[in-house]
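Contributing new records

If you add data, match the layout below exactly. Sequence lines come first and carry their own label; structure lines follow with theirs. Keep one chain per record. Anything else will be rejected by the validation script.
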Amino acid sequence: MPDLLLDIKGLETQFKTPDGIVHAVNGVSFGLKEGETLGVVGESGCGKSVTMLSVLGLIPSPPGKVVAGEALYFGQDLLKMSKDEIRDVRGAQIGMVFQDPMTSLNPVLTVGRQLEEPLMLHVGMSKSQARERAADLLGLVGIPSPKDRLNDYPHQFSGGMRQRVMIAMALSCSPQILIADEPTTALDVTIQAQIMDLVKRLREELGMAIIWITHDLGVVAGLAHRVLVMYGGYIIEEAMVQELFANPSHPYTIGLMRSLPRVDEEKGRKLQPIEGTPPVLYDKPTSCPFAPRCKWAVERCWTENPVLDNISDGHRIACWVDVKTGRTR
């Protein structure tokens, strides 16, 4: 894949627990192009957030540890950087919006203070320059009377406003990559739509690449160019967004689609849940992790874990079965 801004190869992350080692991410590889929006979807515990936190050196150690892989950013491996080196990348070159705006902001510091700090640290601005830039950022993300709100504390903002502040913080140093970890999960639908419109506008204005982590395929359909579907710590399908919705090819992706209401289908169609439960990853899977929940599973699925392979141009799946014909690949 040419012109990759970020190139992840064979990433593996584990956590030590009293019950054993959890294999949270198991050999994930993908690339991100300049200006692209990459959606990462999957149910809770599939490894979406851990993958991105691993890349940025934000996995708490102990209990977590990145045990294998590379994360190349402009030819430099983020996973091999010292704490000081990765701190210079975080915020300045790769910004992150965390999952819960209610807990991600420091409740005892003003919003202005929290916005000014990275500008002084990474950009070298003076206090007055950072103050002016912080007000500009609040205005950029649609917060009214931005100069007046700099002295307010997080509890004085609504949930949607706090999420806008988090986005302003992530954008403060004009990063080339914005990683958004389920940033609209805790918000109502109207605020969710506003945040998505804001991110689209900022992407066009600033030209940054975005990795949007979510379990909501509807959000992905309206925002992403390309989609990764994760399950059991693996990427099990990758495609352009239009191709994924028109031609889902992994049994898990098909199950996700069937469990969602769609406006382009006949009335009266019942939603179909995916039977079973996600895998407990105390052992690294040697067979297909989705096999226990899959109605298309064949003997090979129980003995060998499929690799991510092309089924058409830009469309890859990790599955031994062609679900359209029922034949083994």
